[in-house]
Design the sequence.
């Protein structure tokens, strides 16, 4: 299915952004590993999260809806099972870790063509060092055989929350020390959520990097979790607010964990009106109401260290940079080539098709904005949800409509994207 975005007048209102995808995967997996029944309010109901829900059901957990909430009852995991992770890297990598620490459980994980092209040894090598049985190479399908694991001290370079989380989840099955060291901190939702389930993971800023260590208490007790709105999904309506002249958009209850808010800090530096209000703690995470107002944008310079806090928002940031007046530089984007598509290449090609000059300079992306963008292009999304949403956002502020060649996969992370954008006044359909 193709979709087009046509230039729109000012966008106004509150965007209904669904629950955070990273937290939704973790809530289901930890709920399935816990004793008792976990209630999840605000779970993202998307294709990627559905893949995790199906996987934990096949491993033995009970998953059911209760009004707007979801309930997960943990049970001893059973195998062998075959798990189709679809398009979801988080499903595959976190579940490999969780299964690795469960003696007697065998899981054969597979995925779609995009996921099967993504590297997995970053997870399976440390899990094998801990003692898990791994069959397969760097790509799915891979079989994981759970075992009584030993401990590990793993240097996680480049920083990856999926790798760190897989190791922490595996570590729940051993009493040995489990430590992950990262050059810059990756998102810490697993650590925060472990606390809600009665476990601890401490984080220290040591001389060799950020050190995350699993505490001694390793059995999980069911809890009630409230998941905030996803900042990676909110990025699209909020960037649209920044680039469509005269717009103001609000997202209520958005997760503003500082390891996820890089985009919003950069947008503010570029000159957009970004305001946070009503900050509160919800299930250990900070959430707030976030408002973005359009303004003339200055270019930005993003360093390697800042990228992990906005890795999934780079396509949205690139769109904002296209409308900034001058050259923006975003450094350290090597990992962007290894997502659902080569997002680096897709951004450069898509911007060029829309009349914006952008070049890859090693792992840095240089975007030469001129304040206005022509548009008038059909974009090859390469089956990537974030590329599709980014260029539909661009089309709302360009001089001519922008079409994307495929839009179904938007449902992997933000199923109501089109309706939400339309409710704000965008002309997408
Ligand atoms: O842990 C997570 O939930 C995620 C971590 C990030 O990946 P990496 O761990 O590869 O950085 C991110 O890109 C992905 O969308 C979700
Ligand atoms: C990279 C992403 O997700 P995953 O790694 O879970 O496929 C994403 O949602 O942008």
Sequence:
């Amino acid at each position: 299915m193709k979709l087009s975005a046509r230039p729109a007048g000012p966008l106004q209102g509150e965007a209904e952004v669904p629950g955070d995808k990273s937290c939704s995967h973790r809530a289901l997996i930890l709920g399935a590993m816990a004793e008792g029944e976990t209630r999840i309010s605000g779970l993202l109901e998307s294709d990627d999260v559905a893949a995790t829900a199906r996987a934990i059901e096949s491993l033995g957990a009970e998953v059911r809806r209760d009004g707007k909430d979801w309930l997960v009852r943990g049970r001893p995991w059973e195998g062998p099972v075959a798990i189709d992770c679809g398009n979801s890297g988080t499903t595959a990598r976190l579940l490999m870790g969780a299964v690795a620490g469960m003696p007697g459980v065998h899981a054969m994980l597979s995925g779609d063509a995009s996921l099967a092209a993504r590297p997995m040894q970053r997870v399976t090598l440390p899990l094998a060092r801990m003692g898990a049985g791994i069959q397969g190479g760097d790509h799915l399908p891979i079989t994981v055989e759970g075992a009584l694991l030993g401990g590990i001290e793993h240097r996680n370079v480049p920083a990856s929350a999926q790798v760190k989380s897989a190791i922490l989840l595996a570590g729940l099955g051993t009493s040995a020390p489990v430590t992950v060291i990262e050059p810059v901190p990756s998102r810490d939702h697993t650590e925060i959520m472990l606390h809600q389930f009665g476990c601890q993971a401490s984080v220290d800023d040591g001389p060799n990097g950020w050190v995350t260590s699993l505490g001694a208490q390793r059995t999980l007790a069911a809890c009630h979790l409230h998941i905030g709105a996803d900042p990676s999904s909110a990025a699209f309506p909020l960037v649209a607010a920044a680039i469509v002249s005269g717009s103001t958009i609000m997202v209520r209850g958005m997760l503003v964990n500082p390891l996820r808010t890089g985009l919003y800090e950069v947008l503010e530096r570029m000159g957009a009106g970004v305001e946070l209000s009503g900050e509160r703690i919800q299930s250990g995470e900070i959430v707030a109401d976030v408002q973005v107002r359009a303004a003339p944008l200055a270019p930005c310079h993003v360093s390697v260290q800042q990228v992990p806090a906005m890795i999934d928002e780079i396509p949205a940031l690139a769109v904002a940079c296209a409308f900034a007046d001058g050259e923006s530089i975003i450094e350290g984007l090597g990992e962007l080539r290894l997502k659902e598509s080569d997002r680096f290449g897709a951004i450069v090609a898509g911007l060029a098709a829309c009349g914006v000059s952008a070049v890859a300079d090693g792992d840095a992306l240089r975007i030469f904005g001129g304040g206005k963008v022509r548009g008038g292009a059909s974009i090859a999304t390469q089956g990537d949800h974030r590329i599709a949403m980014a260029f539909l956002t661009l089309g709302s502020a360009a001089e001519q409509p922008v079409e994307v060649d495929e839009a179904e996969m938007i449902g992997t992370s933000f199923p109501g994207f089109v309706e939400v954008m339309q409710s704000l006044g965008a002309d997408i359909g």
